[in-house]
Structure prediction request, 246 residues.
Amino acid sequence: MLTAGSPSQPGFIRNPSALVAVGLGVLLIALAVVIRLAPDSGAESSLMEWMRSRNAPRLYGFMESVSGFTGNPGLMLAPVVTLALLALGRVRDAVIFLVVGAIVAVGVYATDFTLGEIAGRGRPLPWETRPSYPSGHTSGSTWFFIFVMFLVARSSLHDLGKGGVVGVLTTLIVFVGFSRVFLHRHWPLDVVGGYALGALGALAAIWLFEALRESNPIDNLIRRVRTGSVIRSVIRSGSQQSGQAG
Prediction:
């Protein structure tokens, strides 16, 4: 009889993160199909109206601030994280962080667009023409903030500092989903899908970061940048193309 962790079991069964990733992928597709078949949900509309009935000017302003800050968290915080890694002398991790961030951002955006086309549902506000499912605000903030928390957990920062960063980012992740529904920018199921896609993106980012840390090409790239060979190669290539064009 097979036991947990038995070598005879498939690799994805022995890897909990792979199982979670498969589950998140299935959930994302299932939600897209459900929304496609039944785009008008009375339960979602009722929940949104109930949330707005608790409206208060300060709460509305706070939700707008959360929405604005989490619109492009990577563009705003990636330079800060990169500089922090460089200040700590973790040049290799800084390079890998930028590479991973770019790859995962493109992957999450492409998945978001594809799922939106499958679901085919518009946003609650009639003048919003973009697909509603899943919430890009939620997915982008979730994967990026979890990835940053992962890096902070691996850092030499004091435990109190790590706890503070994790607490702030976790709070932002919770509030960004709430704000999208409260402001009528997304339906509740869009936010659920956004969290699922964000968690999937975070798993991909962490896996890719760990994989690149074990690879030699990153070391070669850093070495070439430090010696200036990359810049010389670019200049040489440009000169050759100019010569051919002439």
User: Anything to note?
Assistant: Confidence is low (pLDDT under 50) at residues 1-6, 241-246.
